[in-house]
Amino acid sequence: MNVAAFSNPDSETIKAFLQSIKTIAVVGLSPKANRPSYKVAAALQGFGYRIIPVRPAVDAVLGEKAYPDLAAIGQPVDLVDVFRAPEYVDEIVDACIELAIPAIWLQDGVVNQAAAVRARKAGMFVVMDRCIYRDYLSLIGPSDAD
């Protein structure tokens, strides 16, 4: 099977997207403060986003109730931010499509071309192998956080 090449949206499109969303489900959010997922999610909270932790066997992270999977959230989510290894992305994309979640962001090093293309073909906004925190700072800046 020939997989179409995936490319990220341009910077202006990403900026407009980041300014339009409110609720971010963070898949793989660690309860450990020294982990990148925790640091990024804490920063996103500081920028004014509502964070929903998605991690089995954890009750809460960053003061928010944690859920074992996306289906358990039971409320609208604007974006799924993924801190999981690339081999888990297919099932995460499947869940996003099934739940009609409009967007998925695969963090630095999370690369799954086929899943990204499939998500985009399903109508999702997709960013892959980029850090949402760094993009927020470079495109919007910390002063626009409110």
Outline:
The chain is of the alpha/beta class and 146 residues long. It is 33% helix and 18% strand.
Structure description:
- With about 150 residues, the protein is of the alpha/beta class.
- It contains five helices and seven strands; from the N terminus they run αβαββββαβαβα.
- It has a single domain (about 10-65, about 75-140), classed as NAD(P)-binding Rossmann-like Domain (Rossmann fold).
- The chain has helices at about 10-20, 35-45, 90-100, 115-120, 130-140, and strands at about 25, 50-55, 60, 65, 80, 105, 125-130.
- Strand 6 (about 105), helix 4 and strand 7 form a beta-alpha-beta unit.
- The longest helix has 11 residues, at about 35-45.
Overall structural class, as computed from helix and strand content, comes to alpha/beta
Round the Cα radius of gyration to an integer and report it: 14 Å
Largest sheet: 5 strands, parallel
CATH H-level superfamily title: NAD(P)-binding Rossmann-like Domain
Alpha carbon gap, first and last residue: 46 Å
At the first level of CATH, the class is Alpha Beta
N-to-C SSE string, H for helix and E for strand: HEHEEEEHEHEH
- Neighbour order of strands in the largest sheet: 2-1-5-6-7
Q: DSSP strand (E) fraction?
A: 15-25%
